[in-house]
Amino acid sequence: MNTHPTEIKLHQASRVLEVAFEDGARFQLPCEYLRVFSPSAEVRGHGPGGATLVIDKETVNISAIEPVGHYAVKLVFDDGHSTGLYSWNILYDLGANQERNWRDYLRRLAEAGHQRPT
Q1: How far does CA 84 lie from the centroid of its chain?
Q2: Is residue 57 part of a domain?
Q3: Which of 23, 80, 87, 104 is surrounded by the most beta carbons within 10 Å?
Q4: Domain that holds residue 32
């Protein structure tokens, strides 16, 4: 997939990153979701089965969005995490698969005995 974003807008008050793409897709991506699905090696690991379950990020926000060439952005989170590069393909995939990814994340939290505050 080689679609590029036409708009990236951070809604800090609601902690949502809105991303629109040239194909008309538009995604509302919560900062918590972006943080726990960071493409960084710290979160995804260095190989199969190496992913880390990130918890307690319900109130995390993005403090900066830094462009990386013409292919990605680096999101700087207010918890200090800033090592993941979110390529256009990764952002699109996170948007297109948000419901399934989030359901899987909640299942993994439950299996680990962790409950998100309501």
Answers
A1: 9
A2: yes
A3: 87
A4: 5-111
